[in-house]
Structures are given as structure tokens and as C-alpha cells.
Specification:
By secondary structure, this protein is an alpha+beta fold. 27% of the residues lie in helices and 24% in strands. The chain starts with 5 loop residues before the first helix and ends in a 9-residue tail after the last strand.
Length: 503
């Protein structure tokens, strides 16, 4: 059972403000107090925050609760400046002033990462130009999947919106509004030119994060396993799907692996660790995978409010509070524990700007251990993670820790750049004209060509350059629009079911 102690938070706010008389506060005012005071204790960059009186959290206690609370979270996120960029660590390039990582919700994130979603089950994006709207992905068993929608299908009409144009604010806002509703009518064209219309309603469905897995035999003893992994749901949901895929890869004696994370915004840390343990060579068993780094309040055991956050250990059934955690560096080293018997030395990750957090953690953990190649666009850039903090009916997610791999490397706040010195591979645009697993889909084709010929270059397909001219501007615009489509989507890595360790 989760327990919440608001009286303590109220008293802390009272003294922080230097008050001697406290008027009766509304619940919403207490929530705004709690957001700020928990941040002053647990936030990775708490040291840049002003005092309670200067910040005045109750200025955000307005009628529109969740919107007002998010504005407070946004304000908190902008204080700490990254010296490498001269901008806040949480700088949001598409919405300056809003947080890149921190957010607050009413439990939707925990539900989705637990393996249950309640939506249409598809993602859309513009391809090459802002008038060419395509299906990026479809969750198995979702309303979209049951309607026969596939990645690569072109959307020609949404409800009564026939002039689909992402560069037109009116058209784009109408499109976003339609996609946020509970019912929608889509007119689509398949790659073969045939057309169809579907009427969708949002519905709950169990998430299968593994969209597809298959093996490509490239000849000369070279076999490539390919898996689309779209969400780091909790391990209890993801493990059976991951085990099935990797058991198949092992039985097929693959020599190389391609993990498609192009739209995976992250999720449960435990699942990222499990995926790393499936991929890493057996020789790395029991060596360091990575470390967590918390702020000095937590590292030195000075936390107070977190002792009021109670959880239940799923293994023992016993209650514990966040104050029982060991936040020291030594106490937060994670070692590899090899799973399965797959033994490969090279892995390719397909990535885009939608690849975030637990996805990036998975990649970063493997970089010192084996040959890792990135294919696609610069990733989201989130080397930090969080655990949830309960405040009334809300759950607050603020970065509480940074991760670094066994070589001590992390800090990819501006993303991982494929084809750079740090992240070998090739920088190329997403190909929305082909379904997952199509060997002619450009990003997958790069990996297959590399395994076969030792080069990413493609003889029959043009690499989408973003280096020069109007073409570059058009591609940058569509990629920005697609990031905006991802705004309601979760990006993060969450510590679920951490077991307490008494210090």
C-alpha cells in the first residue's frame, strides 16, 4: 500500500517560507508546495533552485490542475545550466521554457509501462515533406492493428481534414486535436496503391513491445537477427516476448543482431538491463554494466521527505520507504548477468530522435563491451532517469540520477550522433515507405549491407542527406514535426521495484 504524508510537507513549506501563521491551504496549494520541496531534496540539479519564498510554488495553484502543475515543473527544470551548451540541462529545443524530462501525471505512465495502453495503438509521422503523412508503427492487438493498418501506409484524410499540411498551423493543430480524441476516421493508401477507410475508437490492450523478430540469411555463414522493440514495459510484461525472440535467434545461430529502437522512448530500467544481458557476450558476465549517480543529499543520506514515500517490495510483500535506499555510487553499481546463450560480438541499433532514455541506456551500457553501430538520426538525449514520487493523486517524475557505463561515459544530453567518433555507424533519415522487416527499408538495408559487404553504402538507394540546401531544410522540418507528434509520448527510464538497502 502506498502512503502519503501531506501534513509533513505542509509543515516543511511553512518553515521554508519563514511563516509563523499558516492560513488554511487548499489541496492544490499543498500539492504545489510538495512538488517544489521534493525537488529541493531529490532533483538531480536541486542545487540551482531558489528558496521557497523566492520560487513561490503556490503561484501555480490555479483552477486547471494538471496544466498548472506542469507549468511549475517546467519552471523548476530551467534553473540548472549545462556548461557544455550554455542552456538548461532540460532545454527543450522544440518548446523552449518547457521541461525536456520532468513531468507530472495522474498515473497514466505507470499504467502504460505496466503493459496496458488505452489509445488507437498507432504512431504517425511526416515523410520527407510535411504533406506526406505516414503510419510509423502499429502496436499488435491494438485497435489500429485490428483494423489492418500497417507501417508505411499513407494517411490521406483524417476525419474531415483533407488538406494535411504540417507546415500550416491550422491544419496541423486540427490534426493533433483529432489524434487526441477517442474516435477517429482515417483514409489511407497502401504501398500498392489500394485505398481503404477505417473508423477507430480508443481501447485498452495489452502491450507487446516486440513488434517483430526474424532472421536474414546473408550467405557465407552470415545470419542477421532483427527485432523491433518499441517500449521498455516492466520486465514481467516484456520478458516472455524478449525470451521468445532471443531463443529463436540462438537456435538460428545468428552472427549479428539488429535492434530497432527508432520509436522507443524508454521505460523500465529493469527491462533495459535484461535486454543488455541478452545481447552482451558471455565473457562479460559479472563485469560492471553501469552506475547510478544521485545528488549529494541522497548520497550522504540527508533525505527527509523521501522517507514518507512508501512502496511494497514485490518479492517479499514488505513495505519500505525511499529513505531506505542506498544512494551511494558504490551501492548503485549494476553488473552484467548474462541471460541465454547468444554469443555475438556486434550489434546494430536503429535510432531516431524518438529513441530515448532507457533505449539510450541500453546502447550506452554495451558500447565499451562489444562492437556497437548506430544507424539513423541523432537520439533524444536523456542520460538521466527517475523514480515516481506520489503527491496526492499525482505522480511526479523528475531526474534523480544520471547513468554512466563501465568506462565512465554518459552525459549525452544532446543525443547520440550516428556516424560520429563516439557512436560509429551512419547518419540517415527514417524510411516511412516500407514496413518493419522489409530488407529494402533504408535503415535496415544499411545494416544488412554492412554485414554482407563491410560498408553501409547502398548501391540502389540514396542516403537522405541533411547537409545542404532546401532538401536539408525540408527534412529538418519534417523531423521537428515528428518530434512534436511524440510530445504526449513518454520518454524516460524509471526505476520500478527497487529493493531497499539499509545504510
Amino acid at each position: 500500500m502506498k502512503k502519503k504524508y501531506f501534513l509533513f510537507v505542509l509543515i516543511a513549506a511553512w518553515f521554508a517560507a519563514g511563516c509563523h501563521k499558516e492560513k488554511k491551504a487548499s489541496t492544490l496549494q499543498l500539492v504545489t508546495d510538495s512538488i517544489f520541496l521534493y525537488s529541493k531534496e531529490a532533483y538531480l540539479w536541486y542545487d540551482a533552485l531558489p528558496d521557497y519564498a523566492t520560487f513561490n510554488p503556490r503561484q501555480y495553484a490555479t483552477a486547471d490542475n494538471i496544466t498548472a502543475l506542469q507549468k511549475e515543473v517546467d519552471a523548476i527544470s530551467q534553473y540548472k545550466i549545462n556548461p557544455a551548451t550554455g542552456r538548461p540541462y532540460e532545454y527543450n529545443q522544440d518548446s523552449p521554457g518547457e521541461s525536456k524530462y520532468s513531468f507530472i501525471d495522474e498515473g497514466q505512465t505507470a499504467t502504460a509501462l505496466g503493459g496496458t495502453k488505452g489509445d488507437f495503438g498507432l504512431g504517425l509521422g511526416f515523410y520527407q515533406v510535411p504533406t506526406n503523412l505516414r503510419v510509423r508503427y502499429v502496436y499488435p492487438n491494438s485497435p489500429a492493428a485490428q483494423a489492418g493498418i500497417h507501417r508505411g501506409d499513407q494517411v490521406t484524410q483524417v476525419n474531415n481534414i483533407t488538406n494535411i499540411d504540417g507546415s500550416n498551423n491550422t491544419s496541423y493543430n486540427s490534426l493533433v486535436s483529432a489524434l487526441s480524441s477517442s474516435t477517429i476516421t482515417l483514409h489511407l493508401t497502401r504501398p500498392d496503391g489500394s485505398t481503404y477507410t477505417v473508423n477507430l475508437s480508443t481501447a485498452n490492450y495489452t502491450v507487446n513491445p516486440v513488434f517483430l523478430y526474424k532472421v536474414f540469411d546473408q550467405g557465407n555463414g552470415k545470419k542477421v537477427g532483427y527485432m523491433v522493440f518499441n517500449s521498455f514495459t516492466v520486465l514481467s510484461n516484456a520478458q516472455p516476448q524478449l525470451d521468445a525472440a532471443f531463443n529463436y535467434f540462438t537456435s538460428q545461430n545468428i552472427t549479428d543482431l539488429v535492434v530497432d529502437l527508432r520509436y522507443n522512448g524508454g521505460g523500465a530500467v529493469e527491462t533495459a538491463e535484461y535486454l543488455d544481458n541478452l545481447i552482451v557476450p558471455p565473457s562479460k558476465d559479472k563485469t560492471t554494466m553501469y552506475n547510478y549517480y544521485f545528488n549529494d543529499i541522497l548520497t550522504n543520506g540527508r533525505e527527509v521527505l523521501l522517507k514518507k514515500q512508501w512502496r511494497k517490495d514485490p518479492s517479499t510483500g514488505q513495505d519500505y520507504n525511499y529513505g531506505q535506499f542506498d544512494y551511494t555510487v558504490a551501492g548503485n553499481k549494476v553488473s552484467f548477468s548474462k541471460k541465454g546463450s547468444l554469443n555475438i560480438n556486434r550489434v546494430f541499433f536503429i535510432v531516431t530522435s524518438s529513441t530515448a532514455s532507457a533505449s539510450e541506456l541500453t546502447i550506452n551500457n554495451l558500447l565499451p563491451e562489444m562492437n556497437v553501430q548506430l544507424i539513423g538520426r541523432t537520439t533524444y538525449g536523456k542520460p538521466v532517469g527517475f523514480f515516481d514520487i506520489d503527491i496526492n493523486k499525482y505522480q511526479l517524475y523528475i531526474p534523480e540520477f544520471e547513468s554512466r557505463n563501465s568506462a565512465g561515459n554518459g552525459g549525452y544530453y544532446t543525443g547520440m550522433v550516428p556516424g560520429s567518433a563516439t557512436y560509429p555507424g551512419i547518419n540517415d533519415a527514417d524510411d516511412l515507405t516500407k514496413d518493419f522487416g522489409d530488407p529494402t527499408e533504408r535503415l535496415l538495408a544499411h545494416a544488412l549491407n554492412y554485414v554482407t559487404n563491410g560498408t553501409f553504402a547502398l548501391s540502389t538507394q540514396q542516403v537522405e542527406s541533411t547537409n545542404t540546401g532546401a532538401r536539408a531544410l525540408a527534412l529538418q522540418k519534417t523531423e521537428q514535426l515528428n518530434r512534436n507528434f511524440d510530445q504526449p509520448k513518454f520518454n524516460g527510464m524509471v526505476l520500478f521495484h527497487r529493493r531497499p538497502n539499509q545504510r
